[in-house]
UniProtKB/TrEMBL annotation:
Its main location: Golgi. Pathway: Protein modification; protein glycosylation. Residues 13-131 form the Fucosyltransferase N-terminal domain. It comes from Leptosia nina. InterPro entries: Glyco_tran_10_C, Glyco_tran_10_N, Glyco_trans_10, GT10-like_C_sf. The keyword Disulfide bond does not apply. It is found in: Golgi apparatus, Golgi stack membrane. The lineage of its organism: Eukaryota, Metazoa, Ecdysozoa, Arthropoda, Hexapoda. This is Fucosyltransferase.
Amino acid sequence: MLQLGTRFQTDLKYILIWSPPKPLYGYRRTKKSITGQKIFIKQKCPHFNCYISYDEKLLQEDHRNFDAVVFKVKDIQNIVAPINITRAPNQIYIFNSLEPAEMYPVCSPVFDNFFNWTWTYKLNSEIPHPFFNIFDVNNEIFGPKIFVNWTKQMDHTEKYKNKMRNKSLAVAWIITECRLKARHQEFIAEFKNELKGYNYTLDMFGPCGDRKCPKRNKKGCYDVIQQNYFFQMILEDTFSEDYITERMVKAMNSLSIPIVLGGSNYKRFLPPGSYINAQSFDMKKLGAIIDYLIKNPVTYQYFFDWKNHYYYMARPRSYMVDNYGSSHPLKSFRISGASPPAAGLGGCDRSPGCYQLFTPVNTQNNGWANLLFGFSARLESENCMYF
């Protein structure tokens, strides 16, 4: 059995986590940050031949001896002058961020042609870090990924039938941050008005909602929703591609159909027939679908057949390993040499990558949808929402 203090000498890949001389806004590494190989062993990474360090003088006092250097977005977001660092010919520079550029924009031309790889929540990153994993019945990681081969014929089940009998309320929304309510206010107003025509309500839980969570915690809210509500809203706080947060896990592990609204291709993350994508319908159709499913419990139950084939687990943001097996790029990156720096990871004024706008799947000419997606597209242009 491997011990956490074990050191493997063969073919180690040394990775430096770069930090500025003076951390910005008090942001700095905590004492709990794990160095060496411990984190890879602790997190059961299939490739533990990596060595993490925050000390740029570890290898003969020369940072050029590291195989890779990781730059965290919070450390570089406000940098405008070139970084005082010299790159070795085969060294990999990695951009790391689990936040969308709307929150942490990096647009300085200093970073044009600077990074080789990205390590982000986006599924097309060299090191993808989604916020949750999808497992199949064999307990193997199934997704999320760009191309997902979902089971085409889900086995029908009625094992949840008794648990659904007490449902009598339409839609719930747990608001964890007040800014979410403000950002989605036009959609919410229109949605509540549509539900009112069917004599339904949207009940909002949390500090900015009209209802409080039982036991003063979110778990109490999820228990109430699973027992009493047919649907729950999952609205992301930013419209960035592949940005679907851990809150989706709670929704998928409950017995209420999620109504989603975000900037992602949800087919990469959720089984077909398990959710309702609000941007795929105009408001009247969305209201009609909700009403139909509430009044037709047999059809409603089919939305949970996917549970016979998959299950969801949140992936801690502190994870530094990629759980997708032998495809992990850190396995042999130094042997094959560094790939050329990627263009377009910074420089909003001239880099075409920064102007790649997100196109919604289907807004159906809705006023609220056009407003939200227009806002997102503007941010993509101004803040380099490319990572």
